[in-house]
Amino acid sequence: MESKSDSLIAYNVLEKKIINSGFCTLCGACEAACPVSAIQVNGEKVHRLHDCSKDLDLCPICYAVCPHSEALLLRSLSFVSDAPIKNEALGYYRKIVLAQATDPKLREQSHGGAVVTSLLTYGIEKKVFDSAIVSQAEPENPAKPKPAVALVPDDILSAIGSKFFPSSVAKAYGSAVYGYGKTKIAFVGVPCNVLALRKMEAWQHKISGSMKITIGLFCFGTFSLTPLLEHITKTYKIRPSDIKQMRLSSKFVVQTENEVIRIPLSDIESHIMPSCRTCTDFTSELADISVGGAYPLKDWSTVIIRTKAGEDFFYDAVENGVINTWVIEQEPEVMERVMVAAMQKRNTALKEAKKMEEAYGFLPVLLLRESNALARTKVEDVMTKNIKTVPEDITVSQFLDLIGKYHHIAYPVIDKAGEPIGIATLEEAAKVEQDKRKDTPVKKITRRELITAHPGDTALDAFKKMEKHEVGRVLVLDPANPKNLLGMITKTDLMHILTNNVENT
Ligand SMILES: Cc1cc2nc3c(=O)[nH]c(=O)nc-3n(C[C@H](O)[C@H](O)[C@H](O)COP(=O)(O)OP(=O)(O)OC[C@H]3O[C@@H](n4cnc5c(N)ncnc54)[C@H](O)[C@@H]3O)c2cc1C
Ligand code: SF4
Ligand code: SF4
Ligand code: SF4
Fold first, then answer.
1. 392 C-alpha vs ligand 4 centroid, how far in Å?
2. Lowest mean pLDDT among 71-80, 319-328, 387-396, 431-440
3. Residue (of 497, 229, 481) closest to 380 by Cα position
4. How far apart are the CA of 488 and the centre of ligand 3, in A?
5. Is the CB of 219 under 6 A from ligand 4?
6. In which element (H, E) is residue 433 found?
7. pLDDT tens-place string over residues 233-242
């Protein structure tokens, strides 16, 4: 049980639920947001500099802005939820494109499309923003990210490439406002970093007004720095100071001056930060613009544009010749990989969270359970109508082409009489080996169990069915004619109800 002082002074809850439970990812939002400078994130730890309860009777801030607390999640979602497309795997968005820096040298340095570096450099040069929060490399330990306030293009260039350890970018954001007096800041971070900034915005914290644009990176997880480096030193005889670069492909690639070693991910999996195991966000769903790899294409990035501000800025850079774009629908394999990775991360995290629910029951989707809004909403008011169905005889290849074209990850499958027989999903299709996809009919991968609702049921009824059967969607049938498919409702539709409910309160 929490004592009275626990609930009045947020630090006590933050310490107990997040820091001491191993869920902190060192973003530094608590330090940036604390009104009395009582917190410092330093040396892979959060330190309490003084006991704030001596100065204050009540303060909820540090727990509210921490990305791993249940607070402010739905309000944070409302920053992107006016986007026209909502997708179970990728969140809300306006457009998805492939993109790359037009400068080949940048692409070589980044081992990707160098889209982030090009956008930031363009934004600084054109004075769209006055600074950018980036993660450079510590000179004496190059694997370690060094969060920094970039003021000129060279600062941005020296942060190119991914570092697979936590970076205290929200702390650097605080320094940009308080230390440098910056008022138009571009922010780059992994999904939990972006969530921390969105929470500050939802809280209307005074420093959040200086945020100009958020660029989120795709993220499978980060590693605990010291334990992983110790493991690499012990097993592969490489000292941290000798590491020049780390990269992620099918293996974890560690490069020194003299050698390149490729470590199987299974060998280092145990060093992934505990929070990452219950993290559902792969594509930085709350960013203005999200950027990730475009495997199997080299030199390209996948860009998800979510907000109007993101769209205007991105296409301004494209029109000015800084970025090339390409149509993602022409590269269905890229789209498939991104959506499969996002769904796998979400499903694995939800399973893990379910196991931990007692201690940690506040992930966005788990939160659905607690809302009255679902009980007040009828399925017919939120279901997607006129949904696309697929005939049982099309091949898995054709099915994947449809996914690439329409971006939905699941479709009802109908038999020759036009009656629904089940649901086929991207995840099941992706499990069919490449060379067998042209000969495998979609009925072979169709989940035959029909989980259904009627238009007059409540959204809460639909949610309970999703939970019971461990599915992300329910088909809506006509009660007068159960063979007549009227629509479909997904977990994303349920999140939409909650977001609107929050916006209207
Ligand atoms: C921890 C981590 C895990 C990732 N996992 C995946 C994945 O599984 N699949 C996938 O497709 N993409 C993943 N990405 C994203 C991918 O590695 C690239 O960052 C992204 O595609 C942008 O590429 P770019 O060439 O446009 O970026 P660049 O132009 O090279 O710029 C990279 C930017 O990332 C910032 N940055 C680097 N490391 C960090 C960090 N630790 N925290 C915050 N900011 C950082 C730098 O400030 C820099 O501005 C991950 C990135 C990180 C940091
Ligand atoms: S004063 Fe600072 S440390 Fe204390 S509860 Fe508030 S934000 Fe947390
Ligand atoms: S706000 Fe960031 S640094 Fe502070 S406890 Fe939460 S994850 Fe850790
Ligand atoms: S997996 Fe989630 S919690 Fe872990 S670093 Fe990435 S965004 Fe943060």
1. 38
2. 71-80
3. 497
4. 38
5. yes
6. none
7. 999 999 998 9
State which H helix or E strand residue 96 sits in: strand 95-101
Q: Alpha helix (H) ranges present in 36-97?
A: 61-65, 73-77
With bands split at pLDDT 50, 70 and 90, how would you rate the model's confidence at 505?
very low
**Is it true that the peptide bond before 104 is cis, omega within 30 degrees of 0?**
no
- The secondary structure of 399-451 as a DSSP string is HHHHHHHH--SEEEEE-TTS-EEEEEEHHHHHHS-GGGTTT-BGGGG-B----
Q: Is 34 in the pocket of ligand 2 (CB under 6 A)?
A: yes
| Ligand 2 atom closest to 10 (CA) | 5
User: Which residues 6+ apart lie within 8 Å of 451 measured at CB?
Assistant: 465, 466, 469, 471, 473, 474, 475
Query: What is the C-alpha separation between 502 and 505, in angstroms, rounded?
Result: 5
pLDDT beyond 90 at 130: yes
Ligand lying nearest the CA atom of residue 273:
4
Nearest CA to ligand 3 atom 7: 24
Q: In what order do the strands lie in the sheet with 323-327?
A: 141-150, 131-138, 185-189, 211-217, 289-293, 301-305, 95-101, 323-327
Q: Is the pLDDT of residue 502 over 80?
A: no
Residue 281 alpha carbon to ligand 4 centre in Å: 8
Q: Which of 61, 188, 79 is nearest to 136 (CA)?
A: 188
> What one-character DSSP code corresponds to residue 209?
G
Paired strand residues for 422: 413
Ligand 1 interacting residues, C-beta cut-off 6 A? 110, 112-117, 134-135, 145, 159-165, 167, 169, 188-190, 193, 217-220, 222, 291-293, 301
Ligand 4 center to 146 CA (angstroms): 17
Instruction: Tell me the pLDDT band of 4, cut-offs 50, 70 and 90.
Output: very low
What's the pTM value of the predicted model, to 2 decimals? 0.87
Q: Closest by alpha carbon to 192, among 158, 225, 217?
A: 217
Rounded distance from Cα 222 to ligand 4 centre (Å): 6
Interstrand relation of 384-385 and 481-490 (parallel, antiparallel or unpaired): antiparallel
pLDDT tens digit sequence for 186-224 = 999 999 999 999 999 999 999 999 999 999 999 999 999
pLDDT tops 70 at residue 365 = no
Average pLDDT over residues 279-285: 93
Question: How far apart, in whole angstroms, are the C-alpha atoms of residue 344 and residue 320?
Answer: 37
H/E segment holding residue 128: none
Reading the block at residue 8, the tokens are 């009045």
Residue type, 340: V
Q: How far is CA 421 from CA 260, 315, 388, 398, 415, in A?
A: 51, 43, 14, 18, 6
Ligand 2 atom nearest 56 alpha carbon: 1
Q: Supply φ then ψ for residue 340, to 5 degrees.
A: -65, -45
β-bridge pairing 211-217 and 85-87? unpaired
